[in-house]
Fold:
Amino acid sequence: MRGFSKAIITGNLTRDPELRTTPNGASVCSFSVAVNRVYRDSNGDQKEDVSFIDCSAWGKLGEMINQYAKKGSGVLVSGRLDQRSWEDKTTGQKRSRVEIVVEDFNFTGGGARDNGGSSNNFEPTDSTPSSDIPDDIPDEEIDLSDVPF
Structure:
């Protein structure tokens, strides 16, 4: 039987993304997302919990995340889970880490880089053809109460 691994999270970046290049020239961007959860305990009291999820994005996707995201950015991340294992050089103990290898990434509008108050974090670059950018997008915020689902 073949296995399947898919994770989808939404939250805020806990730090600025970190871009590095591997010895073979591949670029990889590392970042962490804080995912908040609200629940009720056995007494019915509302509690909050937060999980910190490590993520890595390779190639152009990682370069774009590094360019446009920053600490506090609201994001939705999907990808596969990956477990890495190694031996700690100082203690000799075996260590492991599970992270999301990012396959898709979207900004959700929270804490984005300051770009004039807009929640759209991707700004056109000189290489973006102007014909690809719609000119009929309103500048005002969208009222989500009008969304029918």
